[in-house]
Each structure stands twice: as structure tokens, then as C-alpha cells.
Amino acid sequence: MPAVDEGLLTPVAADADAEVTDAAVASALVAAEVALSRAWAAVGAAPDAAVSAISEALGWAGPGSGCDTAWLSVPRLAAASVAGGNPVIPLVGMLKDRVPVEARAWVHRGATSQDVLDSALMLVARRAGREALQTLRRTESLLAGFAVVHRDEVAAARTLTQHAVPTTIGARAASWLRGVTRARVRLAEAVGQLPAQLGGAGGTLAAFVEIGGPEAAASLPVAYAAELGLAAPAAPWHVTRWPVTELGDALVQAIDAAGKVAADVATLSRTEIGELAEGAGGGSSAMPQKQNPTASVLLRSAALRAPQLGATLHLAGGFRGRRAPGRRLARRVADAARAPAAHTRRDRHAPPARRGTPRGCRRRRLRRGAHRRAHRVRAALDRADARARHGRGDPHRGRRGRRRGSRGARARVARGGRRPGAGRRAPRRRRRGAPGPRRLHGPRGAPRRPRRGRRAGGRRRSRPPRRRRPRARIPRARIPRRPVHNSGRTGRGGARGPADGDSA
Fold this sequence. Notes:
- The protein has helices spanning 22-42, 48-57, 74-84, 88-98, 113-149, 169-192, 206-212, 214-228, 242-268, 294-316, 339-346, 358-367, 369-390, 395-404, 407-414; strands at 154-159, 162-168.
- Strand 1 and strand 2 form a beta hairpin.
- Helix 7 (206-212) packs across helix 8 and helix 9 (242-268) runs antiparallel to helix 10 (294-316).
- It is 48% helix and 3% strand.
- The protein contains 15 helices and 2 strands.
- A two-stranded antiparallel ribbon has the order 1-2.
């Protein structure tokens, strides 16, 4: 199978990433497995004959070095890694097939996949970091000599792309040198602190205690780190990813320092400026007179990509759990640019979606026995705490019984407990003229209608309640009605009679 990336589109990395290729990672994985077997022998748990057979069969080359993996097919290992999500699972089977039968029990003994994968990546990072440190030291030497030679050459200092005050080429190179020196010191600290990883399935060393005892398990990580040439871990760092993020930050700072030099050289080598020029510029296919600052352009492209790759490391280190999903796939900085193609290629290998069945739910419930017991213990502690605060008996059940007048409440009274309703606070009566409770006007959720007696700020006016005066009763006089005589006239509602003064 042809290689995925030979550097056609990233010539800045061509012939410069030999320490971080897939072949280098595979060699480090085998070295991590052999170092574990040798660490078991160092603490006195594994027989020396079995460990010697493993070291000879798998090409052990010594601490800090990888193993000879000419026998290992990296494309085959990569294809087998799809099912488990990491290359350690199929690699263990390949290693056991290669070592003698009597020594197979000490291959990958007690470790988990992340132990081997993290230790192998730290071994790769240590070798690549040392090579980067050598490059930075050479850069410091060249910049120091350049600053001394050109310390008296006057040039224009520019602020916001405009000429400011005079400076010298040597002073500008001295500022580059300080940035590169600081990056080199920080990278050396990060590379020197890269630890090995050994914690077992949950990071508790429980499997190692079962195999070799407490003393052997306590000294096993130190012996394992010594076999790999890495720093001894203070504790397992499965979910504490500071070794990865600190190394990424130091590498980004180193590329930033080099990118500053490249950006200044590319700008000052423009035709209208012409203050600097590369020693051997690149040519053009159409204009042979051009001398392009090719090295500065390539280095600047790497400086533009590095911060985003470092941010990916921090994003992958912020998950929860003992082994968070996605962190392994996002751990390698070199794979960040290949992620889109990898996702489109792996879609056809995705398993079909499954529905939850009642039988599966029952199985999952049975597997959660420990969680159920933890909840029961928590509930028992809560009940005991409630009884300590509210007296004997279950306070929640007692309140319900007293409120509803249940049979349980009457039984507690017969046993000498509190009577129903005892201890409850009497409802507070509202004094005359005091404002009543707030009520919603209209349907549920409708806006409240403004009340009378409120100011614009919503505060009630402080005025005494208005008292109604009793209405005075005025006695009504009884006016006698005038009698109506039947005198022959047509009265109101009467018959016609004789007129007044007529005789009968």
C-alpha cells in the first residue's frame, strides 16, 4: 500500500518527519511491550529466561530506542486497528505469535492499551523533540553570528508598516535570537519531563498488585520508565494530559519563534525594500530572474498551521471519564490534517445503528448492580440524616400522615408520638387593610393588571388604611295624605259625583 503523505502538498515536512512516521510509531509500540516484560523481570516477578526470549524475538535495541520491526507489516496492523480503535489490540496477538510459548504469558501482562500507546507516543515525542532541540541550537548559533556581523548596518525600524526610527540589522537579529533561545529552553524542559504511562485498566495498578504483590506493583512504573528511557510518573495520567499539552505548547512556541524570523525575511526581501535576502532563493518556472524566499514561505506556512494543531491537543484533553472517547484519535498532531479524508474513508466501516430491546435493558440493569447499591447507600444515609434533624421516624412519611390524617398517624399517636397536626405553624391572619396575596387576573399566564395604589417603580404607597365612616340615618317625616271626597267630580280613579257646595 502506498504511503498516505509523502510531502507533495506539504514540502516543509518532506524528509523531516522520519521520527514521527507510522513505522516509527510501530517500532515504539513494540519497544513499549518489550520494556514491560523487562520491568516485570526487574522487580523479580518474571523469569529471566522468558524475558530474554521476548527481547530477542522482538528485536530489543536498548532503553530509549525502538525495536527492529522489519518483520511487522504496518499496513496490515493499520487495517486490523479499525475494529478496536487502536493498534495495540491486534499488535498483542502478533507479538504473542512471534515469541515462544512459555514466554507468552509475560507479553502485555496486566497493562491496558492506553498504557502502551501513551508510552510509545512519549518515546516518539522524546526522539523527535531531541532532534528539534538540535535544530534550534544550530539556529541560535547562526543568528548569534549574524547579529555580530551586521550590528553596525543601519536600517529603518517600521511600526504599523511605516518608517519610524533608525535601527540596525544586528539589533533585529538579536531579537530573533532571544525568541529562539526562550523556545529552546522551554522545549528542553518539556522533553525532559515526558513520563511513561502505566496504570492498568482504571489507573489503580490493581492488576499489577494481583500479579506481583503490592511491593512489585509500587516499583513497577519506575522500572518501566527506566527501560524506556523516560521520566518516572508520579501517578497514572490517563486523564491528566499535561505531558501532551505542555509538549504541544512548547513545540508551537518554537515554531512561532522560527515563523517570526521567516515573516521578517520574506517582508524585507521584497524588491522595493531589499534589506535582506536568503542565501539561496528559489526560482520561477516563467521568470528566471526571480529569487523567491522559498524557505521563509515554507516555514511561515508551518507557523500558521501549528497553533490550530496545538489547540486540538487541548480540546482532546478536556473530556471526562477514565478514558474519554475521541482523545486517542485526536492525540497525534500529524493526523489533524488527514482527519477529513479519514472520516470519509471510514464511514463504510461504521456498524449499523441498533435499537434498545427490553432484554438488553434488563441486561444493562443487571450490570449496574454496583450503581444501584451506591444509590441505596446514599438513600439510607439521607434517611438517617433526616431522622437526626427531625427526630425519630421518617419525617416525610410523618408529615404526609399528619396532613392526611392517615392510619399511620393515629398509630403513632397511640404509641406516644406527636398528635396529627402538632408542630405545624398556624396560618398567619392578615390584618385589616393589609394587602392580600398576589393573584393573576385573567387566564393562566396573562399579564397582570396594574393595581391601584402603586407607584411607577412597583412600590406600594405607605399610607394608613382608609376607614369608612358610618352613614348617618336621617329620620323621614310622615306626611299625611290629603283625603279625596266623592263630590261628583271625576276623581283619580273615582266615580262622577256632585260638585262642592251642591246640596243633595
